[in-house]
Inverse folding.
């Protein structure tokens, strides 16, 4: 038996077998070293965590975030009365663009990774990154998320809100999805304060949404923000447990922006490379605030100044 196997091995050896071992061992050892270094780095990262990658801003930086956040919130309030049956999402985007420019700021999305618009406008089954278009007209009963990010004096303010087009005309189910998603953001932010953990923010969100029967999107994350659009920490709303995860400290700025699906959590991206839709074609809603951690809570930068409205 042993002999037979040895013979078979011999027979299958390729013609270049003489040279191959030396080459192969060099390649193998390089791959091996890369794998070992990669593994050690991963192990260190798991132990140490990624918290050292999360920028801690100075007390004075809150002023910049307040100004840009207020402008982002006012932009949504400004566009809201225009969200009516018959309007195109391109027309809404132009209103966003002009308002931001008139207030001495720019839209962060303009030119971002080739994106050519001042907002993302996501209708019905569009989860996020809906591309404004003259071809997309709103109808009574639609739900539509408008997501704006202002850059004012170098500071980024990111907020979004889902509106129901022609309120009474929308189905009870659409209205419920929008209401519950707004509640989820509120509950998450109630868990946000210095000394808390990221899981204290995300668990109330996914608990509330899953209890209501909705799918929580993990494909797209919330993110650190400040003088950059997207930074650590990257936050998955469907994951995390109370008392676990990143320790929240004053000076941390990030968004909280849960996306809730009526059906499955899975999404797919359309051929335009941006528009993310639910895999099953059912509705999706989202709300987003930009916040800064403070003692005893989180300051919500993206609230409309002078009003009591949460979002
Ligand atoms: N505003 C989105 C967010 O909440 C990002 C949009 S990026 C774009 O992070 F390029 F799609 F506009
Ligand atoms: Co965001
Ligand atoms: Co946004």
């Amino acid at each position: 038996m042993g002999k037979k196997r040895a013979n078979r091995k011999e027979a299958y050896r390729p013609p270049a077998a003489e040279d191959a071992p030396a080459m192969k061992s060099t390649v193998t050892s390089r791959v091996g070293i890369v794998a070992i270094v990669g593994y050690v780095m991963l192990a260190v990262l798991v132990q140490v965590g990624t918290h050292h990658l999360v920028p801690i801003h100075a007390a004075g930086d809150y002023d910049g975030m307040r100004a840009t956040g207020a402008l982002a919130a006012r932009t949504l309030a400004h566009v809201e009365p225009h969200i009516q049956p018959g309007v195109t999402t391109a027309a809404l985007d132009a209103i966003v663009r002009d308002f931001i420019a008139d207030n001495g700021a720019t839209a962060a999305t303009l030119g971002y990774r080739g994106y050519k618009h001042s907002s993302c406008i996501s209708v019905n089954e569009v989860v996020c990154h809906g591309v404004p278009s003259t071809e997309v007209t709103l109808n009574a009963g639609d739900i539509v998320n408008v997501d704006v990010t202002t850059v004012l004096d170098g500071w980024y303010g990111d907020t979004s809100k889902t509106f129901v087009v022609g309120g009474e005309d929308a189905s009870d189910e659409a209205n419920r999805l929008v209401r519950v998603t707004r509640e989820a953001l509120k509950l998450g932010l109630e868990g946000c304060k210095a000394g808390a953990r990221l899981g204290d923010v995300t668990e109330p969100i996914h608990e509330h949404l899953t209890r209501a029967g909705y799918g929580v999107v993990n494909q797209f994350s919330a993110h650190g923000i400040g003088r950059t659009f997207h930074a650590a920490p990257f936050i998955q709303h469907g994951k995390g447990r109370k008392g676990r995860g990143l320790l929240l400290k004053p000076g941390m700025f990030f968004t909280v922006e849960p996306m809730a699906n009526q059906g499955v959590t899975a999404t797919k991206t359309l051929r335009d490379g941006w528009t993310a839709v639910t895999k099953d074609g059912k509705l999706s809603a989202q709300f987003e605030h930009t916040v800064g951690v403070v003692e005893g809570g989180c300051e919500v930068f993206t609230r409309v100044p002078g009003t009591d409205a949460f979002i």
Observations:
- The chain has two domains: 2-47, 54-300.
- The helical segments are 2-12, 20-48, 61-79, 89-102, 172-190, 199-211.
- The longest helix spans residues 20-48.
